[in-house]
TrEMBL record:
One of its GO terms (molecular function) is transaminase activity. Pfam families: DegT_DnrJ_EryC1. Its cofactor is pyridoxal 5'-phosphate. Keywords: Aminotransferase, Pyridoxal phosphate, Transferase. The keyword Transferase applies. This is DegT/DnrJ/EryC1/StrS family aminotransferase. It comes from Flexivirga alba. CDD domains: AHBA_syn (cd00616). Belongs to the DegT/DnrJ/EryC1 family.
Amino acid sequence: MLPYGRQSIDESDIEAVAAVLRGDWLTTGPAVDAFEKDIAAIAGLETPAVSVTSGTAALHTAYAGLGVGTGDEVITTPLTFFATATTAIWQGARIVFADVCEDTGNLDPVAVKDAMTPQTAVVAGVDFAGHPIDATGLAEVAHSGGALLLEDAAHSIAGSLDGKPVGSLADVTTFSFFPTKNLTTAEGGALVSSYDEILSRARDFKGIGYARDPAKLRSEPDGPWYYEVQSLGLNYRLPDVLAALGSNQLRRLALFKARRRAIHHRYNLGLRGIDSLRLPATRDGADPMWHLYPLRIVDGRRRELFEHLRSNGIGVQVNYLPVHRQPLFAELGWKQGQFPVAETYSAQEISLPMFPTLTDADVDRVIELVRDFVGA
């Protein structure tokens, strides 16, 4: 079965991990410090990233760093992995959904403006499939209402918009390093921001909320062993052994991006001009890091196409089921039909295989199977 996504590991990755295993540090140590600087550099920032154990942990830590709490509202998209919403709930927030743009599947600034209230603390956009959000439009809406902008960039590290790298577009940005993502640490994530206060709170939160820095202590220490628990946090610390893998993967990130772009282009050439298909859009100024190739079939036969491809050994996927239709959110009053653009997009979408080691022959086979199905 040809998977829709997979990790790209070479001997240099294995050696980078082995070097840590031969050393003195397995958990948070020098490899984590180096990785956090590397991630910040990719994001166009000077202050090191805050690395964590997963993309979900990155979102949770970002909401904590943003100070989200009980009584706050977080506006986000229904076309995402549900953790974009559920991690805000863990901080006590109420989730408010807004519809997406028909072309990119990204959060629509006009819909967000209509959903804003005095309780809105954060607008959380998602770079669906790797295409950057309309950061300018969303930031204008969020900031005018006294809220901050979070960019869930789980799909889009190394992307850019109008020449600015993803990571420098929003008040805080989160990344995921799951094996199918654009680089991997096996499991892992990170968040970046240009705001020291957000990063400080985030670092405290992912470090279980305790302080050892003498400058932060509230009482006189009675010895070098002294520490204080000053806030409520969790252990989301990324270990050195995984950070070393991440830093080594970053050395090939430009190659990964170039190959993903080439695969995306090959799909476009092979599937263009077919009335029943809608190909992924790229807006002016956007330079996506394509994590997915989100093909849409608009004649109502998504399940049939899915099963046709799967039966022929192509491990396609659907990204995503609308979050507001999940039982957790249906119980809170969200209903089918409230976000027609996102619901239609989700009902039509099928993710074709997309990863750097995918061969041209594999891509052509997928194209041929799709064209055969639609009769093109």
